[in-house]
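Customer escalation, tier 2.

The customer says the design service returned an amino acid string that "doesn't look like it belongs to this structure." They asked us to rerun it and document both sides in this ticket. The original structure tokens are below, unchanged.
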């Protein structure tokens, strides 16, 4: 195959250092991803079109989203973003043993889907693992159950060789192996129904699920 305690979000010192370094290159908390996973895209800017997400810079806006071909931990079957043609979706990066940031991102996304009501069935969520060793299929399925995530929330796993191209393509720095604290990129990318990069939410700080729900409705209406 190819190609973050709840409520107030807390980040480990290493994560804060990572975010500070990323900010220096103008990428907020949503970047990482040159050859060693440490570079990043130009920053997004506030948007009148979206509530939670920021507008992407011209170099990224409406560019085709990178293809993702990994294993869906829930089904054990291959998952290809080509199957989402005509469906707006979100892409985020998680690991099951994350003590703070990932559970909160998961909760915020789930609450956004709940606020969308029946419209939620018309979108999808892809959570790409940043910890290929710890994110086994069984561990990911347990995380999905504990988070009470719906069937259209896909936890995608794979080997480091399979995941690395996805990390690079989405400017995502993976979790540092052996580090129990959150030290990876926190972002939610929004992809439109045509499979194009539409916006991104810098998820290093808490965002309102209602705003994310509004943003996904915007994509559904286009």
């Amino acid at each position: 195959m190819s190609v973050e305690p709840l409520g107030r979000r807390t980040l480990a010192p290493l994560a804060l250092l990572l975010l500070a370094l990323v900010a220096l290159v103008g990428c907020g908390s949503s970047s990482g991803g040159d050859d060693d996973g440490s570079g990043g895209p130009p920053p997004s800017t506030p948007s009148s079109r979206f509530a939670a997400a920021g507008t992407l810079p011209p170099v990224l806006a409406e560019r085709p989203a990178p293809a993702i071909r990994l294993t869906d931990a829930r089904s054990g079957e291959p998952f290809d973003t080509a199957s989402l043609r005509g469906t707006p979706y979100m892409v985020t990066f998680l690991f099951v043993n994350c003590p703070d940031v990932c559970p909160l991102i998961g909760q915020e996304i789930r609450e956004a889907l709940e606020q969308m009501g029946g419209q939620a069935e018309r979108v999808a969520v892809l959570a790409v693992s940043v910890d290929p060793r710890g994110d086994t299929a069984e561990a990911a399925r347990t995380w999905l159950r504990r988070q009470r995530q719906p069937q259209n929330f896909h936890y995608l796993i794979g080997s480091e060789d399979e995941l690395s191209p996805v990390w690079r393509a989405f400017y995502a720095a993976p979790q540092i192996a052996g580090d129990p604290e959150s030290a990876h990129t926190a972002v939610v990318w929004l992809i439109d129904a045509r499979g194009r990069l539409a916006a991104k939410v810098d998820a290093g700080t808490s965002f309102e699920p209602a705003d994310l729900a509004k943003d996904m409705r915007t994509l559904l209406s286009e």
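Tier 2 assessment: The sequence is consistent with the input. The beta strands are 54-55, 69-72, 78-80, 89-94, 124-129, 153-157, 187-191, 197-202. The mean pLDDT is 82. Sent an explanation to the customer and offered a walkthrough call.
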